Amino acid sequence: MQMQMRTMAGLAVLAVLAGALGGAQGCAVPDTPLHGMVLDPPPEAPMVRIADAAGTIIDLDDERGKRSVALFFGYTHCPDVCPTTIADWARANAELGSAGRGVRFIFVSVDPERDTPQVVRDYVRQFDTTFVGLVPTRAQLDSLQASWTFAARHETTPEMKPGEYGVGHPAGTFVIDRAGRIREILPPNTSPADIASDLRRIR
């Protein structure tokens, strides 16, 4: 039940994000071959520029003209949608085969108080060694929340121990094409086959 409530809350966030990022026209497009909430017209992806565990700056703008991007905001203590999404990414990437080299998978933590660059790098590499894990500073996270229009609020439930908390975050994967535009937001539990299909189409 708790996981279902989190997923429903995450889907509500996605609906708001689709409207906010896509403007008045941001909505699901009927009869589309894609499997997520398609943004029409597709907005430019807001800036993401964060140092990884090795100190290398990962910048979305550097992917323009080179690779499409699958981007997810989550955290390593997340008990449900984060690990299942990254596991689905890994299966989708395996299905893509050599075509996967044309996609960069990026996981951005919304929990800089507990996550470290090394922890997040190790976390995503458990699923696929090509995945990128990033931890913004608190100031960078504040900027990301404003530009990507979400709120990473700390959340508690009666079942949690003192000091434990969850973090609210978008539940979907942002798919960004090589022109730097957000083409769709894939909801949680999208099958690996459908993820792979969309990543083949979005270039």
Oligomer: single chain
The level 1 CATH classification is Alpha Beta
The mean pLDDT is 89
Which series of helices and strands comes N to C? HEEEEHEHEHEEEEH
- Uncertain ranges: 1-16, 23-31
In whole angstroms, the N-to-C terminal distance is: 37 Å
Largest sheet: spatial strand order: 1-10-9-4-5-6
Count of individual beta strands? 10
**CATH fold call:** Glutaredoxin
User: Based on helices, strands and strand pairing, what is the structural class?
Assistant: alpha+beta
- Largest sheet data: 6 strands, mixed
Sheet-strand content, in percent, reads: 15-25%
Radius of gyration: 16 Å
CATH homologous superfamily (4th level) name: Glutaredoxin
What is the number of helices? 5
Any idea how many domains?
A: 1
Helical percentage: 25-40%
The general outline is: globular
Description:
By secondary structure, this protein is of the alpha+beta class. It has five helices and ten strands; from the N terminus they run αββββαβαβαββββα. The chain has a six-stranded mixed β-sheet, sandwiched between helices. The protein has a two-stranded antiparallel sheet with strand order 2-3. The radius of gyration is 16 Å and the shape is globular.
Question: Topology, pairings included?
Answer:
Layout lengths: L1 H21 L14 E2 L10 E3 L5 E3 L8 E7 L6 H16 L6 E7 L7 H9 L6 E3 L3 H11 L5 E2 L10 E2 L5 E4 L5 E5 L5 H10 L2
Parallel strand pairs: 4-5, 5-6
Antiparallel strand pairs: 1-10, 2-3, 4-9, 7-8, 9-10
Helix pairs in contact: 2-5
